[in-house]
């Protein structure tokens, strides 16, 4: 998928999400009246914006990140500074997360500014040229304002989720029984059910938009880092394999996926993504391993699983990077 097609697909998906949301909100308002629904909507927006503002503090606590200086990690710091300059953005704060799973993520808010974090597992698993390509991907997210875009888009399904369950709850406890002579309870239950259905539809569109923006960040890394497509491909394969081993070794690491949309690779899909690695053997060279992976075909099960993932299927992602080499 070329850059223009990718941009068009993202704009079209975003337009679809906003358009569907506006349509169904208008229908619900016309049926129920604006006061209570608008109050609930304002509350949901307030909670999500507050979460966005304080999320960096939560992420730092959950992933045990610490800020590092140029003196502590000169090579890593120089990479972030160099890639930021090439991307035309201010150098974000550099942090290291004290967790063994190899990954990296970009995040931030108006309260904290932008941040890029790499895990100790990433530093121990990838070589510096692969880390450079991973940093290029994360800087791409910051340049494209993906944190803000996805926060805004995620608000819309959340509104329908809370509206749906609130209306169904109201239909049971406030309009149930013989008191409901006008059938208000049935109407509320129906609108609540439809709101939940809209929530799931919008969630699928939101996940699709997230996958498109991952492709876009990959493309940024390939364009800003010398030989970036190859470096990122090899880095992704190594991240997938190492993550699988870590998850099998540490059964209590599931909580690390709480903010998996931030990661360069979805840790929850690592097990199925690494099936090809176990077939080809991990002792092979990085380039050979990528080549073996590219010879695979995404199965129907893979494509269905991708619909519910924040990240693209690893085979499709590697093939997209291959086109940029």
Detailed description of the structure:
- The two termini are 14 Å apart.
- β3 and β4 form a beta hairpin.
- The protein is α+β, with helices and mostly antiparallel strands and 325 residues long.
- The chain has 13 helices and 4 strands.
- 68% of the residues lie in helices and 6% in strands.
- Strands 1-2-4-3 form a 4-stranded mixed beta sheet, sandwiched between helices.
- α1 runs parallel beside α6, α1 runs antiparallel to α7 and α3 crosses α5.
- The longest helix has 41 residues.
- It has one domain.
- It is globular, with a radius of gyration of 22 Å.
Mean pLDDT: 82
Strand content: 5-15%
Helical residues, percent: 55-70%
Number of helices: 13
User: Based on helices, strands and strand pairing, what is the structural class?
Assistant: alpha+beta
